[in-house]
Write a structure and sequence with these properties.
The protein is an alpha/beta fold and about 240 residues long. The protein has two domains: about 120 residues, Rossmann fold, CATH 3.40.50.2300; about 120 residues, Arc Repressor Mutant, subunit A, CATH 1.10.10. Helices cover about 40% and strands about 25% of the residues. Helix 6 crosses helix 8.
């Protein structure tokens, strides 16, 4: 029998009531990969590393509220969020949805209802990809397509941005000039003249970086693989966005 992608989904539970947290964790762990936290600070730490598809948040937490935590997570990702609350007033439900949550469950709730709501939410799940790539003082926003070095915006052409973002999203991987021609330009390389295009555009990107800082910093990011091509320094993927 084929296992659906949702059955491998990562779910983060944020609930300060230990018995409720344990109950939800044990129940969902039968089908999904689950982690949990009892406060907002711990939840954000786990969120960064775990990269969940769905977060189930309690409204009341010892150091914050589920609504504030939802909004903070929504700054970093469009991860699916369900809020747990004993509040049933329409104004409260609207506040939950306005905070960016995808659903809410009113306490007390049955495990069967939890199961159905989780399954419905996970049908919406998409591939999670990075939003912002960070390497030291270099930031590449893959949504706005802005590149900042030491908080200064770099003015790149569309092609230069495409080259830089491609290398950054494959950081640590070495790419030959021929491969880059195929990936970036979309055609088969016809030899040295085509592959020289890669060197020219990499040179332009480096020059724009070096105008912001010293003349060697760019090579710390885009590194030359002698006799082969280029690679990008390892980056830190912090901000993520759900995309189709």
């Amino acid at each position: 029998m084929t296992t659906s992608a949702s059955e491998n989904a990562k779910i983060l539970i944020v609930e300060d009531d230990a018995p409720i947290r344990t109950l939800i964790y044990r129940y969902l762990s039968q089908k999904y990969e689950v982690q949990f936290a009892g406060d907002g600070k711990t939840a954000l730490e786990i969120f960064e590393e775990f990269n969940p598809v769905l977060v189930i948040l309690d409204w009341n937490l010892p150091d914050t509220t589920g609504l504030k935590l939802c909004q903070e997570m929504q700054k970093r990702t469009n991860v699916l969020v369900a809020i747990l609350s004993s509040r049933t007033a329409e104004a409260d439900r609207l506040q939950i949805l306005k905070a960016g949550a995808d659903d809410y469950l009113c306490k007390p709730f049955s495990l069967e209802e939890l199961k159905v709501r989780v399954e419905v939410l996970l049908r919406r799940s998409r591939t999670v990809t990075p939003r912002t790539l960070k390497c030291g003082q270099l930031e590449i926003d893959l949504v706005s397509k802005e590149v900042r070095l030491q908080q200064q915006t770099l003015t790149l052409t569309g092609l230069e941005y495409k080259i830089l973002s491609f290398l950054a999203t494959h950081s640590g991987e070495a790419w030959s000039r021929k491969q880059l021609i195929e990936k970036i330009w979309g055609w088969q390389s016809n030899g040295d003249s085509d592959e020289r295009l890669v060197d020219v555009h990499i040179g332009q990107i480096r020059k724009k970086m070096d105008r912001v800082v010293d003349e060697t910093v760019s090579k710390r990011f885009i590194q030359t693989v002698r006799g082969y091509g280029y690679t990008f320094a390892p980056i830190e993927r912090r901000d993520r966005v759900v995309s189709n």
